[in-house]
Specification:
The chain is of the alpha/beta class. The chain has helices at about 20-30, 40-50, 60-65, 85-95, 115-120, 145-155, 170-180, and strands at about 10-15, 35-40, 55, 70-80, 100-110, 155-165, 190-195. About 30% of the residues lie in helices and about 30% in strands. About 35% of the residues are buried.
């Protein structure tokens, strides 16, 4: 996801920063100001030793009380937005934290990923797990189309929307070829999106 964040961004916020591993890469790459928000105290304490500022707690509460408005060039949600009950409403609210040309960068699980579809269609099952697309902590599920619509309706213009973490299955490639590339999105476990305020 590092490559999706423009090097021109100088003030970056990562929501769900974990132990700060990704945020610290951003900081090292350009020596920029990086903030993080993390709900788990132990991870937040580790992150605090790596980046400029870490707030521990619920993001929506912290956003209203402690995060500066019109401040960040970029807000990053790496596999985090799906953990909020109303990500569409959250995107509308986070706009106030961004500068006028600020960006949102997300990585979201792709519900149409072939492994997920196989389980639902062939195995006739929908079993929540402790990881992956059907993680039991996910409140929302997304496809590339629904991601783009969500950003549009929240007042963002999508600049980049592309699959990441691709399967190399020859069977899937053949199936997609036979369908005239109609299923090109099922190769990817996640969708990376870059969007700017309209």
């Amino acid at each position: 996801m590092l490559g999706y964040i423009p090097q021109s961004c100088q003030k970056i916020l990562e929501v769900g920063c974990g132990d700060g591993s990704f945020a610290s890469l951003l900081k090292k790459r350009n020596n920029v100001e990086v903030w993080g928000v993390e709900i788990h105290e132990q991870s937040a304490n580790i992150a605090a030793s790596k980046i400029d500022r870490v707030l521990c707690g619920d993001f929506e509460t912290l956003m209203a009380e402690l995060l500066p408005t019109n401040y960040f060039d970029c807000i990053v949600f790496n596999d985090a937005l799906e953990h909020f009950p109303y990500p569409d409403k959250l995107l509308i609210r986070v706009k106030e934290l961004l500068v006028s040309d600020g960006l949102i960068v997300t990585s979201l699980p792709n519900f149409r990923y072939v492994g997920n579809l196989w389980e639902i269609i062939i195995d006739k099952d929908f079993r929540y797990k402790s990881f992956g697309i059907l993680d039991y902590t996910h409140f929302r599920f997304f496809t590339m189309k629904s991601i783009n619509r969500m950003f549009d309706e929240a007042g963002f213009q999508v600049i980049i929307s592309q699959g990441i973490n691709k399967t190399n299955s020859k069977k899937v490639k053949f199936f997609n070829l036979m369908a005239f590339n109609f299923f090109s999105d099922i190769f990817f476990m996640q969708i990376a999106t870059v969007a700017k305020k309209k």
